[in-house]
Amino acid sequence: MRQHYTAIIAKSLQARHRRERGLKYLGLISILFGFAFLLILLGNIASNGLSALWQSHIQLEVTVPADAVLDEHGAISEDMVFETNWNGIVQKSLRTEFPDAKGMRARRAVGKLVSANAGFWLKEKILANPELLDSPQKFWFKTSDEVDQYIKGHMDISVPESDRRLSDQQLAWADTLVEQGLLERHFNTTFFTQADSREPESAGILGAVVGSAMAMLVTLVLALPLAVMSAIYLEYFAKPGRMTDFIEVNINNLAAVPSIVFGLLGLTVFLNFFNMPRSAPLVGGMVLSLMTLPTIIIAARASIRAVPPSIRDAALGLGASKMQAALDHVLPMAMPGILTGTIIGMAQALGESAPLLMIGMVAFVVDVPAAITDPATALPVQIYIWSDSAERAFYEKASLAILFLVAFLILMNMAAVLLRRRFERHH
Amino acid sequence: MQNKMTARNVEVHYGDKMALDGINLDIPQHQILALIGASGCGKSTFLRCLNRMNDEISGCRVSGEIFLDDENIYAPKIDPVLVRARIGMVFQKPNPFPKSIFDNIAFGPRINRITESEAELRDIVHYALERVGMMDEVKDRLQESATGLSGGQQQRICIARALAIAPEVLLMDEPCSALDPIATTRIEELLEVLSSDYTIVIVTHSMHQAARISQRSAFFHLGELIEVGATDKIFTKPDDQRTENYITGRFG
Amino acid sequence: MDFSTLTLLLIALSGLMYVLCCNRVRRTAQTLQQRPKSLLRYYGQNAVIWTFIPAFCFLLLFAFFHSILLEQYYLHIIADVYADSPENQHRLLLAQMKNIAAGILSSEDVQLQNLAQDFAASETLVYRARTWLVVLLALGLAGFAYRKAVPHFRVRESVEKTLQRSFLIAASLAIFTTIAIVASLLFEAVRFFYAYPIFDFLTGLHWSPNIALHADQVGSSGAFGMVPILAGTLLIALIAMSLAVPIGLCSAIYMSEFAHPRFRNFCKPTLEILAGIPTVVYGFFAALTAAPFFRKIGLSLGLEVSSESALAAGAVMGIMIIPFISSLSDDVIRAVPRSLRDAALGLGATRAEMVTKVLLPAAFPGLVGAFLLAVSRAIGETMIVVMAVGTAANLTFNPLESVTTVTVQIVGLLTGDTVFDSPKTLSAFALGITLFVITLGLNIAALALSRRIAERYE
Questions:
Q1: ipTM of this predicted structure
Q2: Which of A38, A183, B79, C119 has its CA 20 to 30 A from that of C237?
Q3: Which of C262, C265, C347 is the best residue to mutate to test the B interface, defined by the most B CB atoms within 10 Å of its own CB?
Q4: Total count of domains within chain C
Q5: In this complex, do C251 and A37 lie within 8 Å of one another by their Cβ atoms?
Q6: From CA A367, how far away is CA A353, in angstroms rounded?
Q7: Beta strands in C338-393 (DSSP E)
Q8: B199 and B27 Cβ atoms separated by less than 8 Å
Q9: Where are the domains of chain B?
Q10: SS3 of residue B197 by DSSP
Q11: Which residue segment(s) compose the domain that C31 sits in?
């Protein structure tokens, strides 16, 4: 019998517990680092993006003469609408606010205060309400993005005048308008009702949202049935062997293949070989479904496996065929789990942009797509396009679009978590 | 007979569920005490109270006092790590680390910084292997992985691993339940030898095993300690009807 | 009729056949006093399978292949008509002809106009033929299924066999996808290697694809040495991993071994938010916030930091990978059996000693597998680097300078208007197959390692 080591061990403990605390704090700091970054990221983007919910408007009194729109019979004539200089009407009204601005350059500088699309907006407004013709009307016109950024305080006025997008004079005019109550910030509905535009103040996310929704629809329609079929096959009918192993290795590998490779596949096979339309949500959805398929298959297999074997054995014992047991008894019980996996896969696909760049969904598209074969872009790609633009105002718009995208993705993930919790309670 | 450990009013709760209710038990020094009873009766839970392993299970609360010599191991200033170093434990399934035989046995001395010198460490490992009677079996393959040994050898390595830090008490949680009869016999013989130097508490499912090796037995039933006494007496003239039912195989 | 109308028509016909066949079996069963061999719905399903599937498959095949075949045919005609013009002009003429036929373009060339008229006519003809073929196929097979709808036909076995076969096809799609990826990338890459030797591609130290636009341009040779790109990719992956591995692993250890269950239930979903944020958002942050931030810090320390530094992109990418590593490591650490934890704690180990001396060594192969998967992700990550890193291929290992990556080059070479025959665009596919091979190797190694640990503690 040897002596006990109690005293020696007791002496070592202080240092050892200190080390234990060290490891514990290291872990805690790591987790807090992750949290801190999440807060910084979202906070930074929110602080840049929320201001895009508002847009500066200038109130101007405009009189549109009847002959700008109507022919001699009092009917709307497209030719006359086309020939009217709508921007000119807006500019003229704007210049009356600043009678001291004389000369070509000054007048052009005044014109820069309102949006380049103000005339277009006026035309639409008048065509919808012809009764407003021939009488002075007060309208709120969007300012140009530069004025909007200045009003929101995003413009660094300490920069020398020559390096700025607005001159001191223009800033003074904008300040005057604010003092007169003619320049106000209104809620930016355009952001939610329009597609992309060259002018930041006319750009919106609707086109991209519809493009994304269409691509997601295609992805769902293709990926969910295929994934369920594959999962049932692999769990119920596949005979263990080389073929099944090979399928499994392929699925696991595809789940980890970089997304851009799927884009290359879409480019060479769908676009170049099969001549499918470029920039179309149809092709985007097909590529994304190939990309998410492995994720959904893996989730579907796991939830089919989680169904107690007694269910299947009971069905088989009552004389059901293997297929009946799988489809009528096991599948309904596995469905919540499969849907959870599908939501997670779809959330992944919704945030994906790299493969879409490859198949041309990065195009500048001003129209909201009406069919899945129309040229379109997707929300993450729209963010990419905007963040690449020179104007500070697009940066703000991209931030707001990110907030919407992330909020939606968090909602999807929360739905998946809730579904999973309910599923687990049932079992 | 001097008591090595004493349990007073030990209660254990898992969440809202009570697992042990007011256990009072004396554990005499240098003897083998067998804890017997049906599955789920609380005997393993009680064993894990004796070296504060239950601290590691979330939702588990232990109240009452357990004395090692004269010290309450549940007193606030006590370090559970030191308690576990002083009270060794061997588990149901042999659980050697995926390391060499030598490193397995040297694990305790190393982490507890018992020695700085390699030669002394080798002595400790050799001594532990000799105590479990394995020195001749493994002396040429100390650097081979312990997971390659047979189940019975693995379990004896685990016992040697516990002995290497010279514990005062050895707790064994059904150490033979995963072993074949020959390996079981060897472990039982080993325990008899060890009991001259160590206080041993063994949980066992097999009444024959309890009868063969233990001097005293304690019968647990539904979280209560029903009866404790000399093994001969428990197995021949139990005081309590429930003990008799269990011994004669009416339940359990 | 267009694609969707025909599909709707097929669906309607299938529904009708379902009802008809069910009714037929019920009626004959009544008159013959015979029990049907299978449930009624299987007769209906059988009818749907015969009516819908072959006709729809034909429709799909037609949609995929008709324009290729038609174009090949007209390419031959153009080659005959314009025999004296060079071969690379033919495709251009084909495109012009198609545009004339669609009414987008007009041309003085009478020959081409005639061809366009022919083309438009044959397109109409082909579409009309498609409609008839689909309708006839569906009706014919529907009739066949209707005749088979008799009570003594064991229809369930036949329906189930068809279902099982279609399940097999769905499962094999993973194989087809892999084959399609390899084949398509390899095909284009081989075309590139005809123009540019593969050895130079793999070992060249210069990458400047932009000067190879026109054959007659000065210095048109173009340099396609991928070493600087690969080096840049690895540099950024290295920066990302050296941030993500310690932080991810420490978080995983804390969550599985130290955290209170309630704190863990809060932490895990919160970190998963980080994993769910789209990469374009990380790219946005890297390019517009992190890169200027690093540059400013560098300047205040007197260091020259590029505004597209590898450091900024790598650091943000590392943060993106943290939740990936922490959740994979968590899985691996949890896979180590409880009995080993008990053994260590029972010997008087502190939790930290249990983790570092037992859990981590036991989980080591699995952890390496997880890290390899993370490296594979870092190498294949696109948006962060596209937005935050430049396109100039500098061969440097200085993280403060600007480098470029494989994915950045692929995106740069293939977006915008591209001509598909130039080595410049084809080189993107050579990079693509390189990327695929590297990530494939990493994935397979990771898979093998995680299988090994799964076998050890089954």
A1: 0.92
A2: A38
A3: C347
A4: 2
A5: no
A6: 20
A7: none
A8: yes
A9: 3-96+168-247
A10: coil
A11: 3-153
